[in-house]
């Protein structure tokens, strides 16, 4: 809370200040995040750190709420927000790019999950990319018939077997893919 | 008052539809209570935890139509954790067990499982209407059960629900003998559907008046559907992508000419540019238009479209229409009663899409306007005062300035005077939402003038407890109060505890109330359920009374604390 505001005049301590947030994030963004979650309303007459002082600052833009994503604000139904986001992604051509690694391969690849309609296409593409074959998927036994098992890291950080959840759910939760090989794979999903 | 036989009174009561009036009727005397009790068929329950299904059935054994609301309103904005509650299953189970002749079920913000939908579909042979708004927890499998088993289904209306789409064949599950559909809305479904099944269903539904499809329904199918159902009054378009030179375009244009009954239009979930001229033929008859899910329509095209729609009474659009577009709405749509302008880019800044100018233009041009939801970049006191003078008939006034706590950009003043003018001029306001830079003063005005206000939503406003006290003391008809990020504490919370029993509910999040304050309230008011939502274990195992409570939701209830609260919800 202290870090964000001491630099206003005088010494440009900004360059060396310790503050919350990743390096490179805008300081006005930090200000607004701090101010707003504090739930203390800045009083216009008290010289509050969050609002510009005095009427001369009429032109000065106040808290850029655009960057500060406050929970519950703006008050738009999440259904609506989600449909905007999806459309925005589609309009801007945003893909869902995830890294794909294969045990033993010298470098990783990146693929756009949105480019595939479902698991069969994704797995086929991976097979082509790394020149290997995946076995047959079954819910009970995972992938049988090959020493390669496709896995992914989900939002919670867990390593999951590819194919268990519906495709949409997978697209939403997959952070990266890893083609496991050999004995490690056997532990996870290879039907032995 | 016993001059009339029961049948006569019953007949008279038949004309009384409003549940509030029927509530009053039942208070007159014992025999009126009894007659009203057995003749009531529609019941509205604003908070599903205020009463139990068993007591409902005992009170109104003849119930045929039930409306239930579950989660608090702020759940819409992600403020309520998943699994908070609002399960419909116990209600359906009880109604089924007691063999109630249920025909209609309307749910809002409730958790609906496939299991509940299956039970519903099998338990009520005369079931006719299912309306789900902002619900979640079910999949298309549940819909399949409803389609298959509700042989006399008239209405299946799914609005803005989160539905897991198994891409099954739920539309195929409507039996061939089901010909009773009047209203079908599945616009919120995300997956593919069986187009042939949809066409057959529409073909055998001669009474179909309302059809809203999802984006998986392409234009060619739409044209065939309209051919089979030229009597439609309400149309929700899915995908509207076609090449203006194609056959499909010409066919559609011809078909549209025959759709002279369409009064309400929505959807356009996918639109190709310059495709809209085909619908100009139906525009002159439209009274309601919802293009708020159609970001593919540019501001310029919107404006061209609206110029054909002189009879519009309700418009829901995106802010890409701009202030200039709103000025055109104002000069074209003289019958306008309800306007909602949604942000096309909620987190964007600087795309000054709509400002106070648009609102002022609307207020000047549309004298019948009484309901407003307006998301904008900025607002001025002068504009609000002008709006207040132009439109004294507001019943619902909801203003959302995207940048919280933003002052009047011209004067740098808070917006107290502007809102003050609104509440002073609009004596019939029942619903009010505020935003922008606001001090205690605005609440002073609200307490003084907003005597009819029933629902008030406040965020980032006020300087002290005085604000909340003004509201609690002055707004005699207040039923729902929801507050986020305001400096209101225990003094305000505890000043008039009896008031909360006259209200449906109170929500306070990110305010200054403490655990001790909430405990005191809960202890003194046994007929209130005071719930604390303790996410992420903010309140540790041995909490101190001084600790601030991040989220509190309290509501009056006749049945005590609920037994389905999850771990993170504490009822004090």
From TrEMBL, chain A:
One Pfam family recorded for the sequence: AUX_IAA
Keyword field: Auxin signaling pathway, Nucleus, Repressor, Transcription, Transcription regulation
InterPro entries linked: AUX/IAA_dom, AUX_IAA, PB1-like
Gene3D superfamilies registered for this protein in UniProt: Phosphatidylinositol 3-kinase Catalytic Subunit, Chain A, domain 1
Cell location: Nucleus
The UniProt record lists the keyword Nucleus: yes
Residue stretches making up the PB1 domain: 95-182
GO cellular component: nucleus
GO biological processes: auxin-activated signaling pathway; regulation of DNA-templated transcription
Tree of life domain: Eukaryota
Main location: nucleus
Family: Belongs to the Aux/IAA family.
PANTHER family: AUXIN-RESPONSIVE PROTEIN IAA17, AUXIN-RESPONSIVE PROTEIN IAA4
Function summary: Aux/IAA proteins are short-lived transcriptional factors that function as repressors of early auxin response genes at low auxin concentrations. Repression is thought to result from the interaction with auxin response factors (ARFs), proteins that bind to the auxin-responsive promoter element (AuxRE). Formation of heterodimers with ARF proteins may alter their ability to modulate early auxin response genes expression.
Record's subunit section: Homodimers and heterodimers.
Name of protein: Auxin-responsive protein
Species of origin: Cephalotus follicularis
From TrEMBL, chain B:
GO cellular component: nucleus; SCF ubiquitin ligase complex
Occurrences of domain F-box (ranges): 4-45
InterPro entries referenced in this protein's UniProt entry, alphabetically: COI1_F-box (IPR041567), F-box_dom (IPR001810), Leu-rich_rpt (IPR001611), Leu-rich_rpt_Cys-con_subtyp (IPR006553), LRR_dom_sf (IPR032675), Transp_inhibit (IPR041101)
Subcellular location: Nucleus
Pathway: Protein modification; protein ubiquitination
Keywords: Auxin signaling pathway, Developmental protein, Nucleus, Ubl conjugation pathway
GO BP, one annotated term: auxin-activated signaling pathway
Source species, domain of life: Eukaryota
A single MF term (Gene Ontology): auxin binding
Main location: nucleus
Name of the protein this chain belongs to: F-box-like domain-containing protein
